[in-house]
Amino acid sequence: MRKVVSFIMSFVMTISVFSNFSVVADAVVADFNETKTFGEHKQASEDIVESPYVDVEFIPGNPLVIDEYTNGNWSDCGYGARFEYSAYDVIHKESNIIKLIKNNGETEEFVCNGWVYLNSDDEILNVEVNCDTTDWAPGKENVITFTCVGLVCEVNITINENNAIIYAEDFIAEKVSDDSCIILRINNWKSSKTDVLDIPETVGEYSVVGIDKDFLKGIYGIAVLNLPSTITQIPGNVFENCYVLQEINVHENNQVFASVNGVLYNKAFTEIIYFPASFTGEFIIKAGVTQLPAEAISGLDKVASIVIEEGNTAFAVEDGILYNGDFTKIYKAISVDADYVMKSTVKEIADYAFSDNTTLKSVVFAPGVTVIPYGTFDNCTSLTSVILPESLVSIEAFAFHWNTALERVDFPATTVSVGESAFFNCKSLSELNLNEGLQTLGDSVFYRATIEKVTLPDSLCDMGISCFMENGNLTDVTIGKGLTYIPENTFYGCGKLEKINIPENITIIDSCAFSFSGLTAISLHDKVTKIDDAFSYCSGLTEVNIVDSVTSMNGAFSGCENLTYATVGCGVKSMDNAFSYCKNLEKVIFGGELTIGDWVYGLFLNSDIEFVDFSECNKLERLPNYMFKG
Description:
By secondary structure, the chain is mainly beta. It has a seven-stranded mixed beta sheet, with no helix packed on it. Strands 1-47-46-45-44 form a five-stranded parallel beta sheet, with no helix packed on it. Strand 26 (315-318) and strand 27 (321-324) form a beta hairpin. It starts with 5 loop residues before the first strand and ends in a 17-residue tail after the last strand.
């Protein structure tokens, strides 16, 4: 039986709860598996006085491949909540055809080897076609509007002004001079066909002098890469995701690069450019090498051994660790003792120096180390104990990422910052001592740890999102005086956190800060202004009091299924979905000076509210639309 909602109001008004309600049909993405004619042509640029084209057809490549891509976040943190998004399908087939139909009936066709985006948003379907041609309105953006499956659609075709793109059977390149080009990407790479990739000396009539930084992005299965004599430009991160690459070979006539045993060097053999991620043989550092960038040797953990040629004084190897010549920097640890004590001379550590070492159990740092850099101990799954040096200033992103056995961390007084995901998924980390003097915690620093108690020092003034998200054993939190807000997802999913003291320096409690936590009560002081989505799906809450200082509480208590009673202060201006899906909500009392706009969407959406009291609201003239939608 449907419950009757009672209102107490201090003035006479006509209540129309369900007027203005409209149904919007689900958007349908057009089927582009057949030729579509894109209706009337409209000019997007005033510079074009008259366009010779009256129509356009889009002929997709065959077979058509559509990938769904979504980028967004739950604003209400759970089932039935509002989802703010940009979502689109991506047609990434490299042989799409744009057919241009002139007003005299003639047609022109060109292959569009770019990307085609289908962006569906309620009633509008936006299609963006980005490609290059020498045939049509170079440098101008042409917008064609057409109707498609009942939706109003827009097609944006952007033509490259310099006509620099070169299309060949296996490669797409870009001209960089009258006779040279760089390769942008590979056409139709099939790793099952071959694991060897030969970069050609020419694409069309243009000499290949370089490769784009995204050249190998999304290309998997390359074990051997052969570079031509003409290539002079290789971006630093181009091999970043080449996890199965075993060797790089350079043509002997190349004047910029060279290779030895599959390792890429500069021609003078003074610098190692890149060490293949799946190299498994003997790594030889040539006598003249003086530079060894950390990103170039991140895959060293699979090598059988490291040999330094006689005469090289820039590097040294001792006990399975590659150092610089004076033993002040660690480049890579190939094999170390399970209980490792760092050499006292060490001042610097390279990125990923100990990563993926699954036998390492404990580490004692050298006293002069000030920074533990990016990914240093990433995925060291047996590491249980670290003794941080008293000189430590910064722990960078992913430093102890996925150290699933790590149990305790004590920060020295000198520590100022801890980077993103530094202790992500350290699921055995139960004891944490943060120092006074710590200023910054990055995003997701202690995500999915098992910390039981945390005190945020007064010195902490900058904290990223999701810092303590899904710490299932967290029961005790003290927030210091340096923060002015509690960031998004900070204590999301902390199921044992039943109480929290919000100090007066906190004015904003951000989206999902306490969602799905174990809170049984909250107390807000009169300086808090915003609590959007902050306490959604807290099933332990039964009563809440929203103070007058709060101006925005969209989705604040959405999904709090055991909430029965709430009072809302007079300062609230925005409260969409504030009590949606509160199945046991019985009574809500609104404050006396309450003034809200014409629209409050889904305030009580799918809530079995019985009693709403506006009797003290002497400035409220009418109920806003959509309050009781659902």
